Structure formats: C-alpha cells, structure tokens
Amino acid sequence: MTHPAPLVDIWRGDLLESQHTGHAVICDDTGQIVDAWGDPDAVIFPRSSCKMVQALPLIESGAADAFGLSDEHLALACASHQGAAIHTDRVSRWLDDLDLGDADLRCGPQAPADRDAKHAMIRAHDTPCQIHNNCSGKHAGFLTLTKHLKAGPEYVDIDHPVQVACKDTFEKLTAVNSLTFGIDGCSAPNFSTTVHGLARAMAFFAAARGGDTRSDAAQRLVQAMTRFPELVAGETRACTELMRAMGGKVAIKTGAEGVFIAILPEKKIGVALKIIDGATRASEAAIAAILARLGALDADHPAARKRLFGPITNWRGIETGHIRTDAFTKS
Amino acid sequence: MTHPAPLVDIWRGDLLESQHTGHAVICDDTGQIVDAWGDPDAVIFPRSSCKMVQALPLIESGAADAFGLSDEHLALACASHQGAAIHTDRVSRWLDDLDLGDADLRCGPQAPADRDAKHAMIRAHDTPCQIHNNCSGKHAGFLTLTKHLKAGPEYVDIDHPVQVACKDTFEKLTAVNSLTFGIDGCSAPNFSTTVHGLARAMAFFAAARGGDTRSDAAQRLVQAMTRFPELVAGETRACTELMRAMGGKVAIKTGAEGVFIAILPEKKIGVALKIIDGATRASEAAIAAILARLGALDADHPAARKRLFGPITNWRGIETGHIRTDAFTKS
Question: What per-residue confidence (pLDDT) applies to A1?
C-alpha cells in the first residue's frame, strides 16, 4: 500500500505547525489516471461527495420528470446545504408537492449552519426540523423516487429499492465492487469505493453529453449544480464560492471526513480526494489547488486564495499564519 | 527525523475511515523519556497547553500575592475557558480589582463557546467582548504582572517584560532554546519547543513539592487547576470532565492544533502530545488513552469513554462509528 502523501501544510510564523496527508486522483473519461498523489486504490467512504450519483436513479427512473422537478430541485438533491431560507423553503415546498412532510424524512434534525437561520432559530427558541438537515434535498429526492416506485416509507434501509438503485449505480460508475457500507450522518447507506473509483465516476459525469438515459441524467445534474451553486452549499461555503469563481464551468462537491470531488466537463476530467485525518480546511485547500493546477480556477481569485493561502488570522485580525499546497504545484 | 506515529483511528462501520498521526512523550522529573510515540524531538508550538508556564512569572514575581489572587484567579490564568458566566464574571471582577477594563485586554473579542452564554448573546443582539475570549484569564494574569512591574500597556509585544519573563521561564523548564515564536490566537507570543521539551516542563510541575519560589509557584498552579476544573475549560469540555474523572489528582490542558499536556503529581510524570493535523478529537482521545495507560484514568468512566471510543452518532442518534486508540494499549 502506498502511504498517503503530504498535501496541505499549515504554517504559523516560520514554523510548519500542522500538516494534512491524503490521496488524490485526477482521472480521464476512459478511467485512466492523469495524475495521482498518495494511493489511488485507498478504500474510502465518499460521504456527501457522491450525492450526484445518488441522484441519478431519481432521473433515470422517470421520477424527476413525473413530479416535474426543476434544476433547482436537482441542485438541492446534490446539496449539502446549510439550512438557509433559500434551502429550507424549497425543500418544504418540494415535500408539500409530494403530499409529504418533515416527519417523512429520515435524515434527522440538524441546526442550520447558516448564520441568519441559526440566529433566528435561537431567538425564537425554536428547535431544528429535518428540513434543516444539510441532506434534506437528497432525502426529498429519495422520497420522490420512493413515491414513484410505490415503495415503503423506510427509504434509507439498505434493501429498500431506492438504496439498491443507488448502490448499483455507484458500483457501475466507479467500476469498483463496494466492499462495505457505512451509515452516513443522514442515516442513508454510504458505499465504499477507492479514490480512483470515485474519480472515475466523476469523469463519467464530466464526459456526459447526453444521448442515453444515464448520460442525459448525468449531464442534467452537472448543469443543475453549476447553475445553482448557492443551492449546493450556501453563502461563504467552498462549493458555492469556488463554483461561482469558475463561472459555472466546473461542478464540485464536498463530503464529510475530508472528501472532495470535481467534475470538469470541458476537459472530460474527474477528480476525487480524501484527506486522511478528515479535515475540511485541507480538503478545500487541496481541491482548490488541483483546480488551479488544471487551469480551471484562478488561484488569485479571492474565493480561491482564501482556501489556498488563507491568511490565517486571530481574534484581533492579525495575520498569524498561512496555508501551503506545494504538493500540487507543477514543477 | 522519525515519522509521526498513527495514534487515533476513526472507524465507520467496519472501515477505518480516517486516521490521526502524531508525537507523544511521557517524561519523568529527571527529563528522561519513559515512553514515546513518533518523534520526541519534533518542534511544535505548545499553544494554550503551556498556560501554566506563562502563569509562573505572575506568582514568582510576587504580583499574584501583591494583588491577592486566589486559586480561582490562578485557574483562570491557566484556562482556555468557554466564556460562560462563571468565567466572564470572575475575569470582569479581576479587571475591576486592577482598576482596568475590557479595553486594556489585548486578546481580541471571541464569541463564547458556552451554549447558554452564546444563545443569550444572540438573543440580546450583543457582540462579544474581549473578556469572552477563551484566553481572557491568562491576559488578566498578564495585566496583573504588567501592573506589578509598572510596565507599558502593550503586554503582548515580544520585548515586553511580561513576555521576556514568559520566554525565559519556558526555555528553562523545557530545557530547549526556542527556535522561533508564533503569534497565538490571543495575540500573545507562543514559543516553539520540542514535544520532549514540553513533557519535561510538565514533569517539573508534576514533581514540584515547594521549597523554593519556582517550585512553590508550580505546585500552587497545579493545585489551582485541579481544584477548579470548571474554570480551566467549562461544562462538557475535555479538560474539565477528565480532570473531574481523575478526582483532582491530575492536571491536564489542551492547546490549539492538536496539543495536549498532562501533569501527574503522584507519579512525578509529565505528558505532552501533538496531533500532526491539529485535530482536537484526536488530541483528546490520545491524552485520555495515555492517562488510562498510566493508570490515572478509568477508561470506563463516561468522560473517558466519550473520548476513547465515542460512539460516533448521527443526526438521528444512530451509532455510525467509533474511535480506537490501540497505539496506546500496552501489549
């Protein structure tokens, strides 16, 4: 087994204070590795980074069209949103349209990460509902497919038709037989794959030009994510800010425990990475560095610079350190 | 250079999802290494883990007695508190007693981490003051020493008598010449040392039995920390809960970027560790595992088990994973 590679350095003054290691793969649409760091065959859980794969059966089954889902719905199905009003209002209406409600969700209640929504909830002495959960859009998608299939209400069970379809799709796109699954933060099964497998799935999305059911669906999801970056995460968040910085040409998605993916349609390239220790600050820096290396992201754009360099500041606003991603700089 | 050692594993289902590496040293009062993982000579910033060292000049100078400081004041001087009323009320009174106020602090404003204090502040549409900063007790100590020395108000400047005294004390106790310093989150200088050096300083505190000015001061600080664990951090926090679980026999202190120390007076042993990626979940697990290994902490105590094992649960309260610290289990 190849060891994880040092990917992201955290400096304070002139001392390397902390360091993040990981695995990263850039893959073309034939499944070939274009570039890799660490071990491409490392087995990981993709976590929320693969929500667009989990949304494919929603479209391929005909459910999305049967229920008239728009690109906004599809962007939310691929989202880890922060529970802002723009997210929860849409998910509420979506559930209404299905004649369902918050109690039909199985993602669990989560306090919004969005500052305004969080403060409003605290001031009103409210408690969060399941629609506030960052995965509520994915779950609304699961419920749409469940209704379309006339399946039972426990749609996160491993043998429920929705999850069977998700697993089958995931294994086909990654070209890896999933060795195991974990229960995700939102209670849905999350299937293991390799970093290479995840990058290969993203290259499929990148190369999708329509012409068959799966390719149509993949293209539509990428379009939904890039058209509505604010629905995929939210203000101040990396997915939203970096997708905006790339002018809608690239779809990216974060996952818990240090996973990040990118879909580059112009280059027909997919990217996947995993930070071994699970740190978000490092997965954000690493994906920004890879996107800059690929010429898709301007490293001097403020949204890029914030992730690639920092600066790290303290409670008085004094610059105390910075981030470095030399591992991804072309020599 | 020795590589960092795998110290803390994060499992989801039956997959090792994430892993934290680091350096750890258990040291006796002669400076000898009793046990070590990774590289004892790795250079680190101790961050807030060395606040008891920064508090020594406060006592040794005579300032603490001149201003009538109690063990509660001294516990706060060693604290990274969470801005609860029990912390901020005491720091406010302390500043009053010095005829000083919030504006004399140089730590910067930080929102309280304490849930009640944070919610009250949001409901009142208040903004945090400097007394809410987790380091405000340390800074009240700096101001006390500043006043005693009749020094200037910029007490976090590197050449201010307070910081000169801190550096001198730190280098003597660690037996390491500090190679560099960083600016900490609270704007005070933080001097580099080795993991071994930091453990050696903690062994000095552990072995302090009084008899001279420095030993008296060290013993008094350990007593203050172990008598008032709730002032050193706060409810639900690792330092507070684990010190309580050990019945006041051991002092422990966290530092940013994955540092943790322990002082074991009964064994005259000091511990220091640094998680390479800076993760708090890992530094807490590692210090709990070392304390259990040393027989100071009951691994089955709920406060210990929470850090050593978890379980990791999701938004519906379902157990999705757990923590492992096999690296510290005696073979």
Answer: 55
Distance CA B88, CA B75 (A): 13
What gap in Å lies between CA A276 and CA A255, rounded to an integer? 13
Euclidean distance between CA atoms A67 and A56, whole angstroms: 15
What is the span of the domain harbouring residue A246?
A: 5-328
Res. A279: pLDDT tops 70 = yes
Token couple for B280: 């708090």
Tokens 């530094």 label which residue? Answer: B283
Q: Contact B320/A108, CB-based, under 8 Å?
A: no
**Is A185's Cβ below 8 Å from some Cβ in B?**
yes
Q: How many domains is chain B partitioned into structurally?
A: 1
- Report the C-alpha gap between B179 and B43 in whole angstroms: 9
Would you tell me how many other CB atoms lie within 10 Å of the CB of residue B318? 15
Asked if A124 reaches chain B (Cβ–Cβ under 8 Å), the answer is no
Estimate the crossing angle of helix A115-123 against helix A85-97, to 10 degrees. 80
Residue A170 has a pLDDT of: 98
* A164 CB-near residues (< 8 Å, 6+ apart): none
pLDDT at position B271, please? 98
Q: What is the mean pLDDT of chain A?
A: 97
Give me the CATH number covering residue A34: 3.40.710
Contact A317 B282 (CB under 8 A): no
Whether B291 and B301 have beta carbons less than 8 Å apart is answered as no
B80 interaction partners in chain A (CB closer than 8 Å): none
Residues 276-315 of A with CB under 8 A from B: 276-279, 282, 314-315
Convert the pLDDT of each residue in A129-151 to its tens digit: 999 999 999 999 999 999 999 99
8 Å CB contact of B186 and A315: yes
Pairing of strands B269-275, B259-264: antiparallel
Where are the extended beta strands (E) located within A3-109?
5-12, 15-28, 33-37, 43-44
Considering CB atoms only, which of B12, B44, B316 is closest to A182? B12
Q: How confident is the model at residue A294 (pLDDT cuts 50, 70, 90)?
A: very high
Q: Is the peptide bond before A40 cis (omega within 30 degrees of 0)?
A: no
Return the pLDDT at A16: 98
pLDDT bracket for residue A2 (50, 70, 90): confident
From the centroid of its chain, how far is CA B313? 27
Ranges of residues in chain B with a pLDDT under 70 are 1, 331
Q: Which amino acid is residue A283, in one-letter code?
A: S
Report pTM. 0.98
